[in-house]
């Protein structure tokens, strides 16, 4: 791990690196192979961009999944701005992400069962549209708990 930005000694000693590599290979021997080690070339990038079958997924990614990022990034700041304490804010993030994890597991199994990923991501937009509408049109004087509920359901979207 030694390099110009980590220093001459690096993060690990040589012995620690040997132990680490052996443990990783013992846990998963397939990590020792050199398969799938090719870099991304411009030709591969171009073929993925011109693959018409992937365009609906790209479109859904740009239209549905991009608006989620600011809500997720500023969730704790929004809760603090709503008047919750730091401890309350930290505790209130748990249910939102628990909903997300539950939805992730549930919809992953459904998509494998029906073998259709696009239908699942389409349901994501159906889930999020009323939530974003509620977030946009809630009155300014609505309770902090109402805004929290909407934000938690946005973060707990089906993915």
TrEMBL record:
Its main location: membrane. This is Major facilitator superfamily (MFS) profile domain-containing protein. The keyword DNA damage does not apply. The chain crosses the membrane at residues 44-67, 87-106, 118-138. GO terms for cellular component: membrane. It is a multi-pass membrane protein. The keyword Membrane applies. GO terms for molecular function: transmembrane transporter activity. SUPFAM superfamilies: MFS general substrate transporter. It is found in: Membrane. InterPro entries: MFS_trans_sf (IPR036259). Keywords: Membrane, Transmembrane, Transmembrane helix, Transport.
């Amino acid at each position: 791990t030694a390099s110009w930005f980590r220093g001459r000694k690096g993060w690990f000693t040589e012995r620690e690196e040997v132990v680490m590599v052996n443990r990783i290979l013992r846990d998963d021997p397939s990590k020792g192979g050199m398969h799938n080690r090719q870099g991304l070339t411009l030709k591969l990038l171009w073929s993925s961009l011109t693959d018409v079958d992937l365009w609906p997924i790209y479109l859904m990614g740009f239209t549905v999944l991009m608006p989620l990022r600011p809500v997720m990034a500023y969730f704790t700041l929004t809760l603090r701005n709503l008047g919750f304490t730091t401890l309350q804010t930290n505790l209130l993030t748990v249910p939102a992400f628990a909903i997300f994890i539950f939805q992730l597991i549930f919809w992953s199994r459904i998509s494998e069962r029906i073998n259709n990923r696009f239908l699942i991501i389409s349901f994501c937009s159906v889930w999020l549209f009323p939530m974003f509408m509620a977030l946009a049109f809630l009155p300014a004087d609505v309770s902090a708990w109402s805004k929290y509920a909407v934000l938690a359901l946005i973060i707990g979207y089906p993915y």
